[in-house]
Amino acid sequence: MDRLILFRHGKAAPESASGEDFDRRLAPRGMRESAAMARHLADLGLKPNLALVSASARTRETWAAAEPAFPGAKVRIEDDLYNADSRAIRHAATRAGEGVRTVMVVGHNPGLQELAVRLLTEGHAPASLISRAQRQFPPAAAAVFLFDDGGRPAYDGLFFPERGD
Asked: Is residue 93 a contact partner of residue 76, using CB atoms and an 8 Å limit?
């Protein structure tokens, strides 16, 4: 894996019909912001070859909104990404990334935010950038990292959705 894109699901409805967190769907704003973020990433040339998507309703809907911006990307729904911690997310991406240039993980906080901060720290990013990622990683945010041959990360972008409401 040469590049990792961490993509937090879009803004979700506060509750689901079943009452289960796993079944919460995206709010209309979440659909709009997820699609807009995907288009923005694609416009920058940040397109996954493989998307690992948490099995929850809101992450699957985030991918459905994003997918048109990433034609040709393969997708795998991963049960283990639902509320995974940063180590589990990194392990899943590394394992899936063998022979793949760019992996995207569509998942949840706090795991995605914690991994973004960890990779920024490992990559010796400026303290102001690390602090910004620690303070916020809102719905539909994305963090992008490059990896060298030794698996060391380098910051390649931190993107937050534009709020139109």
From this structure: no
